[in-house]
Design a protein that fits this description.
The complex is a heterodimer of chains A (about 260) and B (about 280). Chain A is of the alpha/beta class and about 260 residues long. Chain A has eight helices and nine strands. In chain A, helix 3 crosses helix 4 and helix 7 packs across helix 8. Classes of the chains: A alpha/beta (about 260), B mainly alpha (about 280).
Chain lengths: ~260, ~280
Amino acid sequence: MSQDAAISVRSLVHRYPSPQGEVLALDGVSLSVRPGEFVSIIGRSGCGKTTLLKAIGGLLAPSSGDILVHGEPPKSARRRKQTGFVFQDGGLLPWRTVLENVRLPLEVNTGASIAAAQDPEALVHTVGLSDFSRYYPHQLSGGMRQRVALARALVFSPSLLLMDEPLGALDELTRRAMRFELLRIWEASRTTVLMVTHSVAEAVLLSDRVLVMTGAPGRIAGEVTIALPRPRPSAIERSPEFLDCASRVENLLSLGGPVGAAHR
Amino acid sequence: MALRTAKNPPVVFRGAALSSPALARRLRRAAPALGYILPPLVALTLLALGWELWVRIAGTPTYIMPAPTEIWARLTGDLGFFAWHGWVTLYEALAGCAIGSAVAIALAITMAHSRALERSIYPLAVLVKVTPIVAVAPLFVIWFGFGSWPKMLIAALITFFPVMVNAVVGLRSVSPGALDFLRSVDASPREIFWRLRWPASFPYLFAALRIVAPLAVIGAVVGEWFTGDRGLGSVIIVAHNNLDMPTLFAAIVTLAVIGISLMTVITIAERRLLFWHESSLSQ
């Protein structure tokens, strides 16, 4: 297990109790992410993707196995503000404006030592919402809300960004536009990203590498390296290389059994 | 303005162009309010008119049913009297409402954090809820005397349950994403409470307040029936014993005015504070 890896996970096992007995959510998951790499985890609902992401973020203590984030335990990496999070529903506070939401992380737990806090206003500008910084979440579209969530996650310039289906709650058209928006923002910052997603196109377009998970219990079935050049223009979605990568991901996914079989 | 200077078209045109946006804006703002107020006002006037006619034509004696004009004369003839007793009742209701809500919210906070506490407190709260308030009121007089306390406590008792139930639901009704995020930035339980749970419970607390404010007035009036030398409840009892119907009805009208005022204040506060919530977005 390499010390210079951004994320290094070895034989991770996680069980949780349920009324029907103990459930094995993750069964011996190992993976490694290099600094600056964009890696996606794709798999069906309930395959343990979110559990894996939360364990790497130090929000959940796994039953057994080792996780290192930049050579330290995930919890201490998170405490040192090295890990940023974007959740599926955004998790914005509806009574705070865009700017106030982005500023929120700076206002809580102020006792912690903060290495590099970014200017919230500059971040709002980066995600293209300068004109909306005084708006409230209910006045924004779903895509704009996720951009606010992304800006908020970047406040401490984290060296690792964990995204749990960041575009999952959006409609298909917004989702397509947001993919490229995400790509643009990431290409400017080049922080290490681990993203959980349901969408093959999204995973292939954004990632350097796609890990395919199968569920019940959660295992990594294989990985596909996406050797597409960067920056990636929107036309890349129709290129043969892109379609080839997508079909390889699809193939690995279908090895996990018919649709529905992987559900809890 | 446009109508008054209509003889001089160019000026009119310029004047209208200058003033019309402001005027139109004021009209647009006033029109919906008028739309809300006018229909019930018309209905109320028709009701009073029908009542007045019926009492006069049938010759109903005042000690059974006074005419609206008699009630109005009694109310306006001694406005200070009704205002003072109304103030006493309002004060008792509001103080009771504040005490009941404070206790309810404090308990709700502990219950929202512990299911075990919820299971032990909840049945007791249900017991308080199902006991008819009229049955407890005389007891409160024995315990707390003839001052404002028994009335405030009866109002508090009525207030308690709806506020507690809504506060528990409200404090738990936080978006999982927001909760996860605050945890991810190491927010303390205290920070999570003040920054997330507390504001998230406001819509539920306001819903409770809408139910509870009129109930608290009922509680205060019931308390005054048993002990009263002041307050609209005692005015009603004394007027009833004297068959003084105009005074009784005037007291009822004062209570109605108090109730409507409370609801108006709550509605305005709700719109100001809950601008971010779905319930106010459709308005």
